[in-house]
Amino acid sequence: MGRRAVGVYAALVLIFTGMICRVYALSMGGALASAANTQSAFVLDVDNTRGVIYDCNLKPLVGTEVRKLAAVQPSPEAFTALAEAGEQVPAGASQTKPYLLPVEEEVYAKGVEMIDAVERYGDEQLAPHIVGYLNPEKTNGAAGIEMAYDDLLKQYDGSLKLRYTLDAAGHTLTLNPPEVLRDNYKSEGGVALTLDADFQRIAQRAMKGVEKGAAVVMDVATGDIKASVSVPAYDANDLAASLQDPDSPFVNRAFSQYNVGSTFKLVVAAAALESGVSRYERYTCEGYADVGGHIFYCHWRNGHGNIDLKKAIEISCNPFFIHLGLETGGKNIVSMAREIGFTRAAQFTDDIRTQSGTLPSDAELESDAAVANLSFGQGSLTATPIQIAQMVSTTANGGFAVTPRLVEGFTDDGKTYYEHTAAYAPSRVFSKRTSDILRETLVNNVEVGSGVKAKPTVAGVGAGGKTASAQTGIYLEPGVEESEVVHAWFAGYFPADTPKYAVVVLVEDGKSGEDTAAPIFRKIADGILVTELQRQGN
């Protein structure tokens, strides 16, 4: 073979070899592509979060608890591990694709991923009537702050997902752990309230055992609501059960109007002192008061004898206050009540407001009997626990009316505020002299009067306050006087020397403010005092 022929032959061999390699490469690429196309992904939605609702110290009021979830890739090994842990594989669970299973304990096995998901509402949910709840789909706020600030809280929506790789048959590749996909999960932005989480917990626990009622803690200087309790409370994780409860757990009793009884005597006393009645005014209680033929009995039918304002508060003498009210005038009393905040609903957001309460009309006050009723807190007078807390705050802070505030501000990071809501400037409604006189009588009442069971047990700390047993005119058994619904109240403040907090306790049909409501006040005051001492120590 000639040199030329050899060269041609070699060239043909090279060309042929290159073609074979190219065909092989193309076939392998197609095979790899085909294999890739037989695999797909499955994304498991694990958890969703939204903006946080905080207290005034930026402590979360929601999302403070977790629930354990097992993300299970179906396999004999995973099922065995679950069975050994006492967990039941739910009927209808996929045999090919991963699913979520709530578990009590950690489960360790190949194909099982353990996740601590956020439980938005806990077993001891703080301030449920304020916080509110979500719709059944968990996509929108349906009540409370959740609804009022729904748009803002949605800005911080987040999600947690797991991405699994599937083979051609749709089974997960158990050797491959899932890819964790976090999108703004557990964002810390949200809205902060004036509530103090520690105070709220103290007040809620103090109210345990009360079937129906409310408790409010208010900063006497600012009107900021530090705690607001309504019982019974609903379970935000099981709203359907609460719908069947005859005690109406969805009603926020702290924002609802009630007969207030003798707590209103503070307003009557303030109006009397401001209109010029002497603090040493005396009256002889004979056990009843006759007002134009209408007989109003004292709780002490034998009469209290000749007493002054201080003693009248101490023993809660109705005839004394009827005398004081008639001397002061019904219109002056109503005017003072309005300036303090009675009949004015507190509007916290577009969707959250209290009831307004009621006062007798000018036409009603033409009757001395109506003025007499008003003078010891009866008749067509109603108010909310929030309004009674305003009354106590005004008494304790030197005579300045305060406007209740519930929303503190907003945060992007859960550490600092980017905006605070406007604070309301207190307005003077009566003199410091009047405030001092009332405070003296209220402290005396807790020391030696009907409020002794409210006295804090923390050494060196006193309190001032007033009991009430408010008749409602509602009888559980028609015609049976003993069956009348009588609400128990205690309205007070502490510390006695330097008032800081007003605390109002209402127990529906609790009968006796002295025996039922006053001890709850003491529990709340003690708890807050100890908490503040601990904070100072830190």
TrEMBL record:
GO terms for molecular function: beta-lactamase activity; DNA-binding transcription factor activity; penicillin binding; sequence-specific DNA binding. Residues 326-366 form the HTH araC/xylS-type domain. Its EC number is 3.5.2.6. Transmembrane segments: none annotated. Keywords: Antibiotic resistance, Hydrolase, Signal. It catalyses: a beta-lactam + H2O = a substituted beta-amino acid. Signal peptide: none annotated. It is an enzyme of class 3 (hydrolase). InterPro entries: Beta-lactam/transpept, Beta-lactam/transpept-like, HTH_AraC, PBP_dimer_sf, PCN-bd_Tpept. GO terms for biological process: cell wall organization; response to antibiotic. It holds the Pfam family Transpeptidase. The keyword Signal applies. GO terms for cellular component: plasma membrane. PANTHER family: BETA-LACTAMASE YBXI-RELATED, PEPTIDOGLYCAN D,D-TRANSPEPTIDASE. Belongs to the class-D beta-lactamase family. This is beta-lactamase. It comes from Anaerotruncus massiliensis.
